[in-house]
């Protein structure tokens, strides 16, 4: 990514986990970062370490007006935004029936609508400058769906489809979109999620899921090691639309999509029947 001055990043959820490591990586190489969090004091360590390279911003990504204001402040301070990293999010655990209406809406407000509002807010400036990178932090759960994670996964599936459409819409404007799908990293993602009231009817499902995870090929990674991978994606001349962060995910993903195609084929007579084709 070529710019005439150090690139400017806007990273949501930059006070902990992946966002914090990514902000430090960008700042350490001389880039400038507008770092966001719900609580401005949680960004004090970044400001103390990197000074004026950091613009700390406290707002809720679900508030579209606050998002637009933060983007405006960043553009006024640094002259524009070259890289948006939509990282803010939380992972709500609970069976579909266990999740309350408020919890379901909050999951989508942060994971989907927060990314939607922020991406929309940076587009005019990126378009005017003829370049930009939008990094959407999805999840391996944006490609598959496991029981007791339905609302979290559905928010990421929504992010996936919106971002794929966005990538096709803005590519001719010099704006590139990449979906990052992390596997398992120690980030505290679920720490800020509200707890559901568990129903005993779903205990067998939870137990089966935990038992199955013991044989999963995923290895919990160190969030700090993802920083080099993120910089490589941001700097790539022709970045992918989707990229996994972490190992062990490709084969289970291949099996998942093979099962889908096999089921479509097995029930193709119904697809044909819906078209009025009698066998």
SSE layout:
Blueprint: E1 8-11, H1 17-28, E2 32-37, H2 44-50, E3 54-58, H3 64-78, E4 83-86, H4 101-129, E5 132-137, H5 150-170, E6 175-182, H6 203-213, H7 226-235, E7 242-245, H8 250-266, H9 268-274
Parallel strand pairs: 1-2, 1-4, 2-3, 4-5, 5-6, 6-7
Helix pairs in contact: 1-7, 3-4, 4-5
Give a summary of the structure in a few sentences.
With 279 residues, the protein is α/β, with parallel strands linked by helices. It has helices at residues 17-28, 44-50, 64-78, 101-129, 150-170, 203-213, 226-235, 250-266, 268-274; strands at residues 8-11, 32-37, 54-58, 83-86, 132-137, 175-182, 242-245. The protein folds into two domains: 8-248, Rossmann fold, CATH 3.40.50; 249-279.
Give your account of this protein's structure.
There is one protein chain. With 279 residues, the protein is an alpha/beta fold. The chain has two domains: 8-248, 3-Layer(aba) Sandwich (Rossmann fold); 249-279. It is built from nine helices and seven strands. It has helices at 17-28, 44-50, 64-78, 101-129, 150-170, 203-213, 226-235, 250-266, 268-274, and strands at 8-11, 32-37, 54-58, 83-86, 132-137, 175-182, 242-245. The protein has a seven-stranded parallel beta sheet with strand order 3-2-1-4-5-6-7, with helices on both faces. Strand 5 (132-137), helix 5 and strand 6 form a beta-alpha-beta unit. Helix 4 (101-129) packs parallel to helix 5. The model has no long low-confidence stretch (mean pLDDT 93).
């Amino acid at each position: 990514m070529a710019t005439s001055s150090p690139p400017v990043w806007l990273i949501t959820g930059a006070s902990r986990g992946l966002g914090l490591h990514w902000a430090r990586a960008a700042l350490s190489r001389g880039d400038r970062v507008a770092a966001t969090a719900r609580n401005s004091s949680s960004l004090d360590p970044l400001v103390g370490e990197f000074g004026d390279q950091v613009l700390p911003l406290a707002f809720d990504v679900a508030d579209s007006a606050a998002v637009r204001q933060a983007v405006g402040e960043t553009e006024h301070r640094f002259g524009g935004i070259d890289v948006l990293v939509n990282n803010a999010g939380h992972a709500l655990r609970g069976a579909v029936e266990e999740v309350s209406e408020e919890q379901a809406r909050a999951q989508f407000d942060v994971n989907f609508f927060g990314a939607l509002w922020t991406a929309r807010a940076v587009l005019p400036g990126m378009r005017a400058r003829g370049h930009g990178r939008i990094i959407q932090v999805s999840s391996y759960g944006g490609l598959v769906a496991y029981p007791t994670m339905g609302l979290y996964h559905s928010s990421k599936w929504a992010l996936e489809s919106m971002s794929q459409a966005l990538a096709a819409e803005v590519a001719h404007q010099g704006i590139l979109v990449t979906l990052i799908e992390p596997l398992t990293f120690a980030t505290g993602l679920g720490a800020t999620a509200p707890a559901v009231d568990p129903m005993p009817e779903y205990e067998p499902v939870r137990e089966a899921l935990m038992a199955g995870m013991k044989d999963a090929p995923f290895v919990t990674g160190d969030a700090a090691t993802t920083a080099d991978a993120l910089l490589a994606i941001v700097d790539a001349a022709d970045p992918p639309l989707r990229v996994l962060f972490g190992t062990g995910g490709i084969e289970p993903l291949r099996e998942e999509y093979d099962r889908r195609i096999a089921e479509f084929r097995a029930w193709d007579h119904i697809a044909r029947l819906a078209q009025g084709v009698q066998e």
